[in-house]
Design brief:
The protein has 126 residues and is mainly alpha-helical. It has five helices and no strands. It binds zinc ion.
């Protein structure tokens, strides 16, 4: 496993920052797990691969290893749903991308714990 402790911590810190309203959620673009593991499925020639959540070295995102490809049906789904339902502006989906209400804060911290647990379970710490 090539994911450094620093990158593991960054994946967790992202959500602590969001809960404090200091960091924005740019989806996969500022998730160190997605940056490390995600690839374009259209490049796949092996149909047995686990979606787009593994990298060229055959290493899989710890969240996908928990059975949640692309973070589907995880606390991240709830975070997105809340943003889309509670924080739409001018009739279009305009994410605040950071916590702006108490529910945002709670959902961000639940996601933080989820990411922590997945890393702890599947990758461990140096
Ligand atoms: Zn909110």
């Amino acid at each position: 496993m090539t994911l450094t402790t620093k990158k593991k911590e960054a994946a967790i810190r992202k959500w602590i920052g969001i809960s404090h309203g200091r960091v924005r959620d740019y989806h996969a673009r500022n998730c160190t797990l997605c940056i490390e593991f995600q690839h374009d499925e259209r490049d796949d020639d092996d149909e047995n691969e686990l979606g787009g959540c593994d990298n060229k070295r055959g290493e899989t995102c710890p969240i996908a290893l928990n059975g949640h490809e692309y973070c589907e049906t995880t606390p991240y789904t709830k975070w997105r749903r809340h943003q889309n339902q509670a924080h739409i502006r001018h009739g279009r989906i305009e994410w605040n991308k950071t916590a702006t209400c108490t529910e945002c804060q709670v959902l961000a911290l639940v996601e933080m714990l989820f990411v922590y647990d997945a890393i702890d379970k599947h990758l461990g710490w140096d």
